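User: I'm writing a tutorial on reading structure tokens. Could you give me a worked example: one chain, its sequence, then its tokens, then a sentence or two explaining what the tokens reveal?
Assistant: Sure. Here is the example chain.
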Amino acid sequence: MLRKMRNTVLLTALLVMIAALLGGCMYPEEKKLENQIPSEFYLEATQKAVEQFQKDTGVLPIATKDINTP
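And here are its predicted structure tokens:
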């Protein structure tokens, strides 16, 4: 009985270690750092959008709220 329980514990520990090791291999490609779009791209795209909005409307895209607005 004791030997069977020991084998079960060892098998469980082995399976947990294998799962932990394989989990790193399954990390999504799009989440890896080398596959990320640099923040400079977003900064430039946002700046261009703000400039285009100002050119089209004559004002900056800023929403002003009443002083009583929470």
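What the tokens reveal: The chain has a mean pLDDT of 83. The radius of gyration is 28 Å.
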